Amino acid sequence: MEIRTKRIFLMPHLCRGVLSFFLAIGAMAASAEEVKPLIEPDVRPQKVDESLIDTENFELGVFGGVINIEDFESSMLYGVRVAYHLTESFFLEANLGLAEGGETSFEKLAGNVELLSDEDREYRFYNVAFGYNILPGEAFLKGPFSGDTYAFNTNFYLIGGAGATDFAGDNRFTAMAGAGYQVLVNDWLAMHVTFREHFYDIDVLGETKTSMNTELSTGLSFFF
After folding, report:
1. What are the extents of the domains in the chain?
2. For the residues of 28-79, what is the DSSP string, one character each?
3. How far apart are CA 141 and CA 173, in angstroms?
4. Residue 15: phi, psi to the nearest 5?
5. Cβ-proximal residues to 59 (8 Å cutoff; 6+ apart), any chain
6. How much is the pTM?
7. DSSP label at 169?
8. pLDDT digits (tens, 9 = 90+) for 107-143
9. Are 152 and 118 in contact (CB under 8 A)?
10. What confidence tens digit (pLDDT) does each residue in 45-101 have?
């Protein structure tokens, strides 16, 4: 009888102990949520205007530069290009370039001897090429007045293709290979600097040989 009486008196004390335990845990959780870090991070995002390729995949441009026509001096070059971007990395391109061949060393030494007429000295090439953006990146420029930083998307690309060259009274199959650097000024305008080699066989000076014509040009293109 005495043991049963003790159990009856101990029950309220046990309930109060369990209740106090859970209340203490709840208070600790609430205080943990109210704790603030000792050092507040001062993160201020920097304003950057970034140029992106437009959603359109076609690109139309003009270019100008210099081409070294082997044995016929260097000449000013100008032309047009059209490109279609298959993906962010690969593109197809078509080019048309115009120049004019100069005099050979033999013509200069011989005096009045002319190997080619003025019409035959007109140099025209056209080709279709496949390009690959091998090193996409960014170039940063700080504005001189506003102080804002401008980010320009860039691409270093390799390109190669084939076409034809009209020169010296004949149309010659031509292979082309080179590289270029593209800077996107905004979402519809880009600048290009290109270096290319044009290869074709020619026999104007007697023996047939492979002529290597080096092109260095720059230009602007528009996305549409």
Report:
1. 49-223
2. HHHHHHH---SS-----PPPEEEE---S--EEEEEEEEEEE-TTS-EEEEEE
3. 43
4. -65, -40
5. 81, 82, 83, 84, 85, 91, 190, 221, 222, 223, 224
6. 0.73
7. T
8. 888 777 788 888 999 999 999 999 999 999 988 887 7
9. no
10. 655 555 555 567 999 999 999 999 999 999 999 999 999 999 989 999 999 999 999
What pLDDT, on the 0 to 100 scale, is given for residue 10? 47
The total of other beta-carbon atoms located within 10 Å of residue 49's CB is 12
Give how far Cα 40 sits from Cα of 36, 37, 43, 47, 160, Å: 9, 6, 9, 22, 55
Task: From the options 1.10.10.10, 2.40.160.20, 3.30.499.10, 2.40.50.140, give the CATH code of 49-223.
Answer: 2.40.160.20
119, two tokens? 């019409």
- Other beta carbons within 10 Å of 147: 8
DSSP 8-state class, residue 83? E
pLDDT above 50 (res 9): no
Helices and strands (H and E) in the chain: how many: 2, 9
